[in-house]
Request: fold
Amino acid sequence: MSLTFAPDDRPVLLRGVRVQDDRVRGGQVLLAPEKAVRLDPIGEAILQRVDGSATFGQIIDDLAAAYDAPADQIAGDVQTFLQGLRARVFLGVA
Reply:
């Protein structure tokens, strides 16, 4: 199985995984059974768009427009971030 997301793939958080506010430290964390990852603002921005309905390409386009950045640069960064989460079994493809 490849961890790479194609433009038409629809990333989705897997069952039991959720983003939650961290009231103690501030910010948000990605929670799964017996796992937690503290998110930086970039991770938060990416995961706000991972809802199971948006394609990887749509997420890239939205982030590129929101941050006025080149889509190819955004695509590489988002691909790396989401591949890391997919490898750790936080997300998959709908």
The CA atoms of residues 23 and 66 lie 27 Å apart.
